[in-house]
Amino acid sequence: MPSLLFCGPKMAACGIVISIWGVIMLAMLGIFFSTKSAVLIEDVPFTEDDIFKDQNPPQNIYSLYNQVGINCFIAAAVYVAVGAVSLCQVRLNKRQEYMVT
């Protein structure tokens, strides 16, 4: 039967640590973008047309803030999936240690 084990115990543990860090950081960024934090205005991809040539400029900027926040939450979900795979690899590595061949 083929094994689903494709990385070692150290790499799997590193994947878990990086995933936890990524989830926390991206979830916080998503929250701050969703609340339209003024500090993050440099990271919002708007053009000059969004500000000067629109009838209601704050709403366009707010929608861009929300879109970036959603992107951060999606990236956090990807990190959750990577953490789950890494956790499975850790468990498979531990089970491999106890198997007698």
UniProtKB/TrEMBL annotation:
This is Ribonuclease, RNase K b. One of its GO terms (cellular component) is membrane. GO terms for molecular function: RNA endonuclease activity. The gene is RNASEK. Keywords: Membrane, Transmembrane, Transmembrane helix. Belongs to the RNase K family. The keyword Mitochondrion does not apply. Pfam families: V-ATPase_su_f (PF23489). It comes from the Eukaryota. The chain crosses the membrane at residues 12-33, 68-90. It is a multi-pass membrane protein. It is found in: Membrane. Its main location: membrane. InterPro entries: Ribonucl_Kappa (IPR056552), RNase_K (IPR026770).
